[in-house]
Amino acid sequence: MSNNLARNTTISEPGGTSTVTNLVTATGDWKDGLVASVQVKDSGGNLLREIDNTWIADATTNANPRLSSVLTTLSDTGQQSRIDFLQYDSNGCILDQKEYDFGLVLKREITV
User: Fold this and answer.
1) Which residues share a beta bridge with 99?
2) Which of 56, 59, 106, 50 lies closest to 85 in space, CA to CA?
3) Cα–Cα distances in Å, from 2 out to 5, 7, 26, 27, 69?
4) What pLDDT score does 5 carry?
5) How do residues 34-72 score in pLDDT, each as one tens digit?
């Protein structure tokens, strides 16, 4: 690894379940160091679910990174749920978000 950054970290629970957090490791990229995905595995190392993060930043400066969406996929059924962060204020507080249940059915929208 050229930039000497951790690519991922694994936390193992006493029952054997492990959580692997994967980071973006692209030297010079504004996303460098942000969480790209999280994988939850059973005691046998089988993937149970994966959570993928999509990031956005200010258009001209790439400053102020913030989540655009979080997608969760269950490995056994392939079902997905998602949260979309549609609007932020100038302080980075979420003003509008949509939450989709498994099957990507819109369950609620929260606006401020």
Assistant:
1) 83, 108
2) 56
3) 8, 11, 9, 8, 29
4) 63
5) 999 999 999 999 999 999 999 999 989 999 999 999 999
